[in-house]
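User: Here's a structure from my thesis project, written as structure tokens. My advisor, Dr. K., wants to see whether a designed sequence matches the one we expressed. Can you design one independently, without my sequence as a hint?
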């Protein structure tokens, strides 16, 4: 009798442990506080609205702001963030390959058309021979800047590099104006604008520097480019309920309306 009672007690204890473990895992899958990394500038502004929408669903978003494109994925991979929202797919693909991350997209956010800016000329027609041209030194955005220069008729790239979206200055085959291509960190380009004739500057850094895509860019991408930004998480979290709730908050009518009203075409909803 005593032995039977003991076995039942142990069985109940094991069941209680299993149920507790299951409820703990469920709670983690449905956690209500998230740390999300964003880039400085418009990403901060948009996430103020996302936070309010998410709060209605009981989701508390803590925004962590970065000034460097190299840091948010490292922070996500290490577990310091639950998600980030600052990059497009080519950039993520390159980071995963180069740094061994296992980060995946879970939803689209905005398209931020890339622009070339200048403090020396008002129109690209005024670009002199031998001009210094700043481009990003990371592979995805550097390729993007070179494609934009080619679209403007300033250079020609090797067809294979264009096809593979991996063009570098070494792939320039014609350069009639003898432009001097200067590859710099994306965050450094606005600060170097006084030393360059034109520079390719990502939208968030341009905004922080007081530059407007519509008013100040001498070359700019079409609004519907293939470089849509995204929300990214670790692969193990891609199907978690909280990831779906985060995407739903971002892709809400309130956030879409804010982007369209606030940025007037310099940022475009990609959802």
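Assistant: Designed independently from the structure alone:
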């Amino acid at each position: 009798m005593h032995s039977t009672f003991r076995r039942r007690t142990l069985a109940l204890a094991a069941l209680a442990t299993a149920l507790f473990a299951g409820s703990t895992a469920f709670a983690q899958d449905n956690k209500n506080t998230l740390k999300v990394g964003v880039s400085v500038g418009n990403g901060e502004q948009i996430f103020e609205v996302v936070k309010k929408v998410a709060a209605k669903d009981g989701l508390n978003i803590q925004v962590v702001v970065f000034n460097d494109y190299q840091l948010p994925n490292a922070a996500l991979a290490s577990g310091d963030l639950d998600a980030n929202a600052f990059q497009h797919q080519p950039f993520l693909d390159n980071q995963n390959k180069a740094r061994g991350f296992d980060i995946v997209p879970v939803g689209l956010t905005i398209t931020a058309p890339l622009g070339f800016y200048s403090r020396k000329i008002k129109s690209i027609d005024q670009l002199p021979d031998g001009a210094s041209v700043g481009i990003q030194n990371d592979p995805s955005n550097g390729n993007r800047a070179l494609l934009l220069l080619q679209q403007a008729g300033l250079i020609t790239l090797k067809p294979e590099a264009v096809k593979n979206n991996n063009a570098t200055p070494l792939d320039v085959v014609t350069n009639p104006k003898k432009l001097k291509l200067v590859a710099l960190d994306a965050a450094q380009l606005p600060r170097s604008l006084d030393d360059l004739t034109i520079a390719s500057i990502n939208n968030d850094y341009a905004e922080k520097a007081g530059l407007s895509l519509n008013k100040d860019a001498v070359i700019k991408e079409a609004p519907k480019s293939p470089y849509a930004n995204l929300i990214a998480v670790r692969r193990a979290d891609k199907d978690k309920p909280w990831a779906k709730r985060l995407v739903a908050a971002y892709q809400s009518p309130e956030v879409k309306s804010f982007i369209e009203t606030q940025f007037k075409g310099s940022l475009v909803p990609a959802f």
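When you compare it with your expressed construct, this may help: Residues 2-29 form the longest helix (28 residues).
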